[in-house]
Automatic annotation (TrEMBL):
<comment type="function">
    <text>Involved in the synthesis of the GDP-mannose and dolichol-phosphate-mannose required for a number of critical mannosyl transfer reactions.</text>
</comment>
<feature type="active site" description="Proton donor/acceptor">
    <location>
        <position position="12"/>
    </location>
</feature>
<feature type="binding site">
    <location>
        <position position="224"/>
    </location>
    <ligand>
        <name>Mg(2+)</name>
    </ligand>
</feature>
<comment type="subunit">
    <text>Homodimer.</text>
</comment>
<dbReference type="InterPro" id="IPR005002">
    <property type="entry name" value="PMM"/>
</dbReference>
<feature type="binding site">
    <location>
        <position position="123"/>
    </location>
    <ligand>
        <name>alpha-D-mannose 1-phosphate</name>
    </ligand>
</feature>
<keyword id="KW-0963">Cytoplasm</keyword>
<dbReference type="GO" id="GO:0006013">
    <property type="term" value="P:mannose metabolic process"/>
</dbReference>
<feature type="binding site">
    <location>
        <position position="181"/>
    </location>
    <ligand>
        <name>alpha-D-mannose 1-phosphate</name>
    </ligand>
</feature>
<dbReference type="InterPro" id="IPR036412">
    <property type="entry name" value="HAD-like_sf"/>
</dbReference>
<dbReference type="GO" id="GO:0004615">
    <property type="term" value="F:phosphomannomutase activity"/>
</dbReference>
<feature type="binding site">
    <location>
        <position position="10"/>
    </location>
    <ligand>
        <name>Mg(2+)</name>
    </ligand>
</feature>
<feature type="binding site">
    <location>
        <position position="207"/>
    </location>
    <ligand>
        <name>Mg(2+)</name>
    </ligand>
</feature>
<dbReference type="GO" id="GO:0046872">
    <property type="term" value="F:metal ion binding"/>
</dbReference>
<dbReference type="InterPro" id="IPR006379">
    <property type="entry name" value="HAD-SF_hydro_IIB"/>
</dbReference>
<keyword id="KW-0479">Metal-binding</keyword>
<dbReference type="Pfam" id="PF03332">
    <property type="entry name" value="PMM"/>
</dbReference>
Length: 262
């Protein structure tokens, strides 16, 4: 009996260059070669709209059996939405508002070289906080990133939040150039695994697998077989290796089956 396997992919840096649409040859390989052997699924930290932009618009749900946006807080299986939880259900409105008020107050007292708009972006399972504001241009993003490397604005902000809210079970994750994410403990990418039932093996492919990276927990999870990749091309290479290994194992198994009289 062949094993039931699902290949689960991170998006940015794994299937696509960061924030870019998937390369046509990578997509063709996934849909025409990999999908014949395994179920395929994607898990991204960003919202569904961004994943749709990167991975094929309206046909997204036909291409991937599972689509996990926001680490799996938003889940589609065969195109159908599964029930989700929200950060407001988890924290409660009072705690949530105290938190947001503190964030806004802290930002109001920050002196930076410049500030733009959208300092708090509220998502289903996380809050994204940007001291400089998400509405900055590409050039301004880079400028802030450099400034932050020197002055540790985001790190200090997180320390202040941890000190102010020691009892809220929250995780803080610095990603990208201008912001950090805040979400309940455990609502990292491992969250999506609760929806992947009935598989013998879950192969996860991701690029940010080191500690502090947003693929770390799911890469290390006992429920997955983790593959660390460096770019989409490397993902394709590693999938080819996986396919070759499984083929070899299958052939060995067939040789080991005792001969039977028919
Ligand atoms: Mg990534």
């Amino acid at each position: 009996m062949s094993k039931k396997i699902v290949c689960l992919f991170d998006v940015d840096g794994t299937l696509t260059e960061p924030r870019q649409p998937i390369n046509a040859s990578v997509e063709k390989f996934l849909l025409e070669t990999i999908k014949k052997e395994f179920d395929i699924a994607v898990v991204g930290g960003s919202d569904l709209i961004k994943i749709q932009e990167q991975l094929g618009g309206g046909q997204l749900f036909e291409k991937y059996k599972y689509v996990f946006a926001e680490n799996g807080l938003i889940t589609f299986k065969d195109g159908k939405a599964l029930p989700s939880q929200s950060i407001q259900d988890m924290l409660g409105e009072d705690a949530l508002q105290d938190f947001i008020n503190f964030v806004l107050r802290y930002i109001s007292e920050l002196q930076l070289p410049f500030k733009r708009g959208t300092f708090v972006e509220f998502r289903t399972g996380m809050i994204n906080v940007s001291p400089v504001g998400r509405n900055c241009s590409k050039k301004e993003r880079e400028q802030f990133y450099e400034y932050d490397n020197e002055h540790h604005i985001r790190e200090k902000f997180i320390q202040a939040l941890k000190k102010e809210f020691p009892d809220l079970a929250l995780t803080y994750s610095i990603g990208g150039q201008i912001s950090f994410d805040v979400f309940p403990v455990g609502w990292d990418k491992t969250y999506c695994l609760r929806h992947l039932q009935g598989y013998d093996e879950i192969h996860f492919f991701g690029d940010k697998t080191a500690e502090g990276g947003n693929d770390h927990e799911i890469y290390e999870s006992d429920l997955t077989i983790g593959h660390r990749v460096t770019c989409p091309k490397d993902t394709v290479n590693q999938l080819n290796i996986l396919m070759a290994l499984l083929k070899e194992n299958r052939e060995k198994e067939q040789l080991n089956v005792p001969l039977q009289c028919v």
